[in-house]
Amino acid sequence: MPDLPPRVPVCLTIAGSDSGGGAGIQADLKAFAACGVHGASAITAITAQNTLAVTGVWPVPPDAIVAQIAAVVDDLDVAAVKIGMLGSAESTAAVARGLALLDPGVPVVVDPVMVAESGARLLDEGAVTALVELILPRATVVTPNLPEARVLAGHPRAGDPRADHSHADHPRADREGAEEGTRRPAAAIPAAATPTAATPEAEAAEAEELARAIHRLGPSVVVVTGGHRTEAIDTVFDGTTVTRIRGERHADGAAHGSGCTHASVLAAQLALGLGPVPAAREAKARASAAVRDGLRGVGAGAGPVDVLGLAARRGAPARPGDLAS
Ligand SMILES: Nc1ncnc2c1ncn2[C@@H]1O[C@H](COP(=O)(O)OP(=O)(O)OP(=O)(O)O)[C@@H](O)[C@H]1O
Ligand SMILES: Cc1ncc(COP(=O)(O)O)c(N)n1
Question: Which ligand is nearest to the CA of 121?
Fold first, then answer.
């Protein structure tokens, strides 16, 4: 009997569809393929979107979200999950129901998508609480950008000194009794995620403080991504150590889908057996290169990232089998 080739790991993305193909499910499946894992998907919302704008959002019925996850989990051996756009509190609750169908050991990477690069709101104001309470405690890694991190850290539970540091030690019910007086005011979701005007040092200190605050909400590891900073440094906090992942900033790159790509590569690397910090390094490297190589000519707005090296392949000789006719 010939040796069977090693089995290709399966990753599941639970996210919104971007009709323009730059972000969401479409970006996630490309990132999974780039990493050599098989991608399955459960769609939470359909967006009518291109590089310029989001012109419509249709939530998928909650039962249909759960049914998609159930169909995948029933048959495919899911090695890691990536969660992106949730949209509404109802969709978030459905995703939480779907997550309960997974083996508790399956790593879950959460990209808390709030606002599209083109400016549209992708998470209802009221859904932040559902995200924090139902999804973050199940997260192995959460990957907010700086504006998203401010929203999560401003959530009432984050400033509570009695908030938990691990879900096992501090079940959610404990945090329900947090005193009002110890809570920070919740930050509103900004209309668009704009770069900050702070110094690099101030941004670094803020990212670290936010990572620590978000860690108290329950995820095992927090990665505050650096795409909205003067220096594109990702800040990782695993509950013990802060790691800064540096890389060149590609100011003239095309970054639509950078966060989706980053979180999906991270999930794929966990599925391939890496630990969270090495997986975050690989995610940073691949997302940064995908921004650098981003497809500036595709659409009139922010071009989609190119994680598959599509542009570099143009003009390359076709493989022999492609020339059959
Ligand atoms: N201009 C850039 N140059 C280099 N790396 C970048 C750039 N923009 C983003 N990145 C990297 O891409 C990854 C995603 O970061 P980013 O902060 O853009 O996520 P995001 O804002 O959630 O993305 P999105 O807007 O697609 O949701 C991070 O590893 C970040 O460092
Ligand atoms: C369906 C969907 N999911 C996520 C994003 C965020 O990506 P970006 O901030 O690059 O627009 C998006 N625009 N659309």
Answer: 2
pLDDT of residue 1 exceeding 70, the answer is no
Structure-token pair, residue 91: 């969709």
Burial class (CB in 10 A: 0-12, 13-18, 19+), 140: buried
To the nearest 5 percent, what fractions of the chain are helix, strand and coil? 40, 15, 45
The atom of ligand 2 lying closest to the CA of 257 is 10
pLDDT of residue 175: 33
Helix or strand run (H / E) with residue 58: strand 54-59
Contact 47, 59 (CB under 8 A): no
Nearest CA residue ID for atom 3, ligand 2: 24
Which of 50, 85, 131, 261 is the pocket-test mutation for ligand 2 (most atoms within 8 Å of CB)? 85
Q: What is the pLDDT of residue 157?
A: 53
- What distance in Å separates the CA atoms of residue 265 and residue 35, rounded to the nearest whole number? 7
146: Cβ contacts below 8 Å, ≥ 6 apart: 193, 196, 203, 206, 207, 210, 224, 225, 226, 228, 229
Check whether 168 has a pLDDT greater than 80: no
pTM, 2 dp: 0.88
Report the pLDDT value the prediction gives residue 314, as an integer from 0 to 100. 79
